[in-house]
Write a structure and sequence with these properties.
The structure is a single chain. The protein folds into 3 domains: 30 residues; 123 residues, Jelly Rolls; 40 residues, no CATH class. Helices cover 24% and strands 26% of the residues. It has 4 helices and 10 strands; from the N terminus they run αββββββββββααα. It has a 5-stranded antiparallel beta sheet, with no helix packed on it. The longest helix has 28 residues.
Length: 218
């Protein structure tokens, strides 16, 4: 009787374990989950397009062969190849981007909440780095052929420190890495200047100037 009670008590745990394993076995059987942009998006990503509607074009993306327009305030352009524009990546845990930087161009401090980043310099000279959660700074000047990794969720940046254009490609450990740019989070919204001043110790006049440049209000 005691043994039977133990079995009965452990059944919910066993059920959860087998359900978990079953869900993984189903995921392994499914070859792919091409994003269906017309269907609702859930926490796990885009819904799957019916296989009968999938074509080879869903698995091909040609946007990374063209240089981006760097005529902007940061003198840089980023061309993403993530699941939001490349449906065949959905659910596969990988994605790419192309970054073009004019001389003096910068990719400001930003984070990717959903992925680590691996950047390969193809042309030019780039100073790149990140800040750990212990506030240790790791940065280095990268030359053509150099690779640097930026751990998931950590603030990082890239600057073209050379006299010619720079180009790097970055890969991510997620089809939807996410993006939050620190400058935009602070100065491209309607968060009151007083709150930003209190939380960053910046002068209100400086904050208002940056809001004017980046499009923020209040």
């Amino acid at each position: 009787m005691h043994l039977l009670n133990e079995v009965k008590m452990s059944f919910p745990a066993l059920f959860l374990i087998f359900s978990f394993l079953f869900s993984f076995s189903n995921a392994a059987v499914q070859d792919f989950c091409v994003a269906d942009y017309s269907a609702p998006e859930g926490p796990a990503g885009y819904s799957c397009k019916k296989e009968a509607k999938v074509t080879v074009n869903d698995f091909v993306f040609s946007g990374l062969g063209v240089a981006g327009n760097t005529s902007n305030i940061i003198k840089a352009a980023v061309t993403p190849a993530t699941a939001s524009v490349f449906p065949g990546l959905n659910g596969l845990g990988v994605s790419l981007l192309r970054a073009d930087l004019a001389p003096g161009g910068v990719i400001p401090f930003h984070t990717h909440p959903g992925a680590s980043e691996l950047a390969l310099v193809v042309d030019g000279t780039i100073c790149a780095g990140f800040v750990s959660s212990a506030n240790n700074v790791y940065f280095k000047t990268l030359q053509k052929g150099d690779i640097m990794v930026f751990p998931q969720g950590l603030l990082h940046f890239q600057i073209n420190t050379g006299k010619t254009k720079a180009l790097f490609y970055a890969s991510f450990s997620s089809a939807i890495p996410g993006l939050q740019i620190l400058d935009y989070a602070l100065f491209k919204n309607n968060l009151p200047t007083e709150i930003i001043a209190e939380t960053t110790f910046l002068d209100p006049a400086v904050i208002k100037k940056l809001k004017g440049v980046l499009g923020g209000t209040n």
